[in-house]
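Format notes (please read before filing issues)

Several people have asked whether sequences and structure tokens are stored in separate files. They are not. Every record keeps both together, in the order shown below: the sequence lines, then the token lines. Line labels are part of the format and must not be stripped during preprocessing.
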Amino acid sequence: MPTDFLFDGPEDARVTILLAHGAGAPMDSASMNATTKVLAGAGFRVARFEFGYMAARRSGERRPPPKAEKVMPEYVAAIDDLGPTSGPLIIGGKSMGGRVASMIADAEFAANRIAGLLCLGYPFHPPGKPTQLRTAHLLELKAPALICQGTRDEFGDRYEVGEYGLSDEIELFWLEDGDHDLKPRKAISGFTTAQHLQAVADKVTEWVGRIAR
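Then the structure lines:
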């Protein structure tokens, strides 16, 4: 079946960002909507899609999230179905969606089909299981990558991630006191979610300006 997309942002944007959702929430979750809105407001064309198991839930079929490796072909198919873009294409997503994108990024980058990878809250390990790392492919990643991560993300906080020895092609952008949805506790951090998301959009704009000329 062809991929169904949600599009936001200007159709004639120079850069398109393709995003997949996290394991437990759809492409139009509150978190995805808020992030998409701020990226579209920054001038990016944002395309969202769902993996088959999540799309099936819309018709009442409850499927658990499959292993990330199982849906890698679906992400490649989404790139195919998106077709040629007017300029550089960035792939990525929220949590599991970003992880899946990271697993196909080098092959797509080598084929000149993408310019980079954007991960929003990367799931470096399952919560409470810091030794079950999902980082092997990130140690030698060749594609330019930006990971936006909350400093108190239970899937990998600032202290843990600093020990992983990730590829030099990966740039980490830390959001103070942010959780897995990048949300801070205002009373503790002094920041709001809206401020953090705007900071993400500003960082993505600066990063894309460097890696996708």
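For reference, the curators noted about this record: The chain has seven helices and seven strands. The first helix runs from residue 30 to 41.
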